[in-house]
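Hi all, long-time lurker, first post. I run a small reading group and we've been trying to get comfortable going from sequence to structure in the token notation. Rather than ask abstract questions, I figured I'd post a concrete chain and ask someone more experienced to write out its structure so we can walk through it together at our next meeting. Sequence below, copied exactly:
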Amino acid sequence: MKVYRQYFKRTLDIVAATAGLLVTSPILLLTILLLLPFNHGQVFFTQVRPGLHEKLFKVIKFKTLNDNTDENGQLLPDKDRLTFLGKVIRTTSIDELPQLVNVLLGDMSLIGPRPLLVEYLPLYNQQQHKRHLVRPGITGWAQVNGRNLVNWPQRFEMDVWYVENVSFLLDLKIIYLTVVNIITAKGIRGEGAVTMKKFKGNLK
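-- Answer (accepted) --
Happy to help. Here is the structure in token form:
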């Protein structure tokens, strides 16, 4: 496990991300062309997230929400800003494809705990911080076991379990289950939201 994580996982990430970008390049180009008129030329969404050892980096995704605001200039809730095209892109997980660039840059891995918001860092307990002992992934053990339908404690438990059990065979299993979930659009929405509700801390 340790040998795979330290020496082979990164090599496989580079090879797979390069191949992934080449294979999906027609989808990437088409998505860019479709998003241009929907988002007033803003195709990509970037946001600072914590990665390996909580080092900050900018995650890259396709922009699926518009920038509509209320009368006070505050952004509307996500469910009111999700465009039709954005919904399609999320359902098919196409919005995650630009993160292959993050993989090539070394910020992310194909498989690992999802990179979450920086504001969550002080809310983690000691065990939950372990999720940052590996590179964050485009997909991961929590994503193929409920994704946005599991609660935060369960999600963090699965993230830490992956960190403690990472292996080549486990990564292959996650890739297979990810493909199945994409086909079935399983677990994309959290209950009562278009995505997962925000983490409020372990005592809230």
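A couple of things your group might point at:
Residues 2-184 form one domain.
The beta strands are 44-50, 56-62, 109-111, 137-139.
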